[in-house]
Structures are given as C-alpha cells and as structure tokens.
Amino acid sequence: MVRRYNRLLVVLHVAADSGAGVAAFLLAYWVRFHSGLIPVTKGYPPFVQYLWLAPLIGVLVPGAFHLHGLYRLRQGRSRIDDFFGVLVGSVLAVVLGVVSTLYVQTYYVPDQLKDRGVFEVSQLVWGLFLCFNVGLTCLTRVGVRDWMERRWRAGIGLKRVLVAGSGDLGRLVVDRILEHRELGLKVVGFVDDRAEGGAHLGYRGLPLLGTLEETPEILHREKIDHLYIALPLEEHVKMLGLVENANREIVEIRVVPDLLQIISLRARLEDLDGLPIINIHDVPLRGLNAVLKRTMDFVLASASLLVLAIPMGVLTLVIRLTSPGPALFRQERMGLDGKAFYVWKFRSMYDGAERNSGPVWAVEDDPRCTPIGQFLRRSNLDELPQLWNVLCGDMSLVGPRPERPFFVDQFKQRIPQYMLRHKVRAGLTGWAQVNGWRGNTSIEKRIEYDLYYIENWSLMLDLKIMWLTVIKGFFHKHAY
C-alpha cells in the first residue's frame, strides 16, 4: 500500500515535472527569438523544430530528476531542499539534453537537414530553459503538495490503519506514518496483549484498543483497511494466529520485521534466483551515483588546487620559517571499506610531537602545536592539502571525517555502528561537521549524523554541506 500511494505521488510529480519542462523549453524559445528582449543576429529557427524536441524534453527532465533521487520518499524534505534538488536535476537535464541533441545531430541527421538546423538548440535557449524549468517546476511541486494536503485534510481516500504491537517497533511504524501524511494513512490505534491489565495508554494520542485476540472484532468495529503487525521477536509466535484471525476480515496485512537491533542503514530487498534476501546495509552511493560524485570531486578539487596554489605556497613558506621540520606531513587514516590510506596535512605541531607519546587526542591549547599551527588548526587551513587526497580518489569533498586506525580500534568496540561510516569515502567536510559535531564532542552524535548522510546521500545534500561549510566559516570552537 505504501508503495502504491508513493507511486501515486510520484506519478503526479513526474507528470507535473514533464509538463513544466516542456513549457519551460517552449517558453525559452519564445523569449529568445520572438519576445524582442534579446537581439537575434543569426536568423529565426522555425518553431516546429523546437516543437519536435518537446517530447524529448518531457522525458529528459523527469529522467534527470529520477537519477538525482527527487522521487524518493524522504522524511522532512523542505521546500528549500526541493529547490536545490530541482536546480541540480535541471542542470543534469540540460547536460543530457545538450549531449543527446549533439549526438543525434552528428550521427543521424542528414547533411541537408543539418543546414536547416534540425536538432540544433541555441545555447541561450538552454540557459533560459534552465531558469524557467527551475521556477515552473518549483511552482508545480508546491501545487501538487498543497493539493495532496487539502485532499487528506478533507478525508478523501484516507485508509484506516491498526498497528499490532505498541512497543518500540510499533511506535516507529506510527512515527513513519505520521511523518508522511501524503501516503493517505490514518492510524486508528494499537492492539497489544498489554491491554489485558486494563491499560489503555497508547502513543502520540493513539489509544490501545484491545488485545491481540480481540483484533478481528476491532478490525470490524473500526472499519480498518490495513493491519500493520509490528511485534517484537519474542512475540512473533503469535503472528500466525493473528494473521489467521485477521484473514476473516477484508483487510490488507503488512508484517514489519523486527530488525531494529541490526539494521542501521537503509535495508533493501534483493532477489537471489527467486529467494528474497534482505540487504540490511544498503547505501544509495553506488553505480551512477558514485560516478557522479567522483566526477564532481575531481572537477572541484582540481579547480580548488589551481585557485589555492599561491596561498598554499605562502603557508608552506610560513611553516618552514616559523618552526624546524617539513611543511607537510602525512598520517595514516582509515577510509572506504576500512582500507588505510595516508592523509596529507600542513604540519601544525612541532616535528616529532608524538614520537614518545604515540597517538594522542588533540586538546584545546595543545602544547604540541606551533604558534602558526594553532591558527592553522583553528581555521582548518591545515586540511587544505587533502584536496590532493580528493584528487587521487582516497577522499571525497564531502563525507565522514577520516579517523586514525588507533582510535578506530577503540571506537568500534564501544560504538556498534561505528564501522558503517566507512561505507563511503571519507570527506574534507561532512554533515556532522557543519552541524557542530567535531573535535572533542560526542562520538555517538557524530556517528548518528554520519549515518544519516550515508543513508540520505544526494548531490543536492553534498552541495548543501559545501555551502554550509562556506557560510558557517572555517573557524569552529571545537577545532584544535
């Protein structure tokens, strides 16, 4: 049911996005060639040539949005998130459009038609299309969202849900349903054997309606459409009887497996020659997504190294002049899939600072730091050489910060989910860092934010983190 209602919402968004894309493309043509706002110096291409391309645009736009993950159901997605998502998706649509039209024009359009400009699109039209598509798509998405919300508030199409199990798993089910009201689900209450003692307390204002044995009567009395069975592992023996009793009523049954103790990332159902397999550590950063992220890392790291070459040269000279020893040093860190690599940094401590003590956690006003090193660490400028690690593929611009193997061995014993942060490349900056969890702060909270980033990765989220890194500045009170 959730999948069906999600598909309904996706279909509405796909149709709206496709229509907005076509409208934006044709509007861009009119503004460029017929509005009089922009001088035309090379003639007027016939409107029908752009009209022929409209179906292609209508497919490319939702296709690009799908690649960017805009049609995935996510918790707490704001309109600002939608805007940045649409912006990145529209840029991807323009890139696909340019490549597609150039490819078809080069290899499939006869020479006599090439002279007439068939499958040729003005660069300025592509630029205008990008602007118009972002604006129109955001407006249509607001319209779709408002229409869906009015529909649910009016009670149209709502499905009544009963949750069997009022423990942690059942409450998690309720939380998810209430966070996604666009699914059209209304939770009526719980059934649980805890009701035998006369307790009627539920959760989030939802009552405990009765025991598991009373489920058939409650299903009929409350006119339930969907039963979610969310029993803990020790009570799953009762599930078969509950399913048998529920089958006497016309109700759809959904079983929520109690995997909370082992699932910490997004789980995905896979197929092994007809045998269902649950992948409990699935991450979205695979395949094409990994290629897109790596491409962005390579391009931005290369550009940053070119722009920062002179400032980094000045820092190198200052470090050499203010304390003996090399300006750069490398340190072993743990990266993707738990493989060790050497990270490059500007030296901020006296040469050989850990020769006798071994690996030691940095503290505020650390006596091992040089005078210029204090500034470098407070401003995070000591991390700039890691752009080379990004260029080489050891790191990414955005991801969980890499840790030294010595400390990893300690943390993984204390924090069960700690090693899951190595499912992606380590980053120069990350979701935990821009939210204040770095340095001498809670490791548990840092892991929580790192796992959120891994599970919800998108190009839009990467750009948002980069933007927050710049906006919030490089100085941080826990950077030392």
Automatic annotation (TrEMBL):
InterPro entries: Bact_transf (IPR003362), EPS_sugar_tfrase (IPR017475), NAD(P)-bd_dom_sf (IPR036291), Undecaprenyl-P_gluc_Ptfrase (IPR017473). It comes from the Bacteria. Residues 293-473 form the Bacterial sugar transferase domain. Belongs to the bacterial sugar transferase family. This is UDP-glucose:undecaprenyl-phosphate glucose-1-phosphate transferase. The gene is wcaJ_1. Its EC number is 2.7.8.31. The keyword Protein transport does not apply.
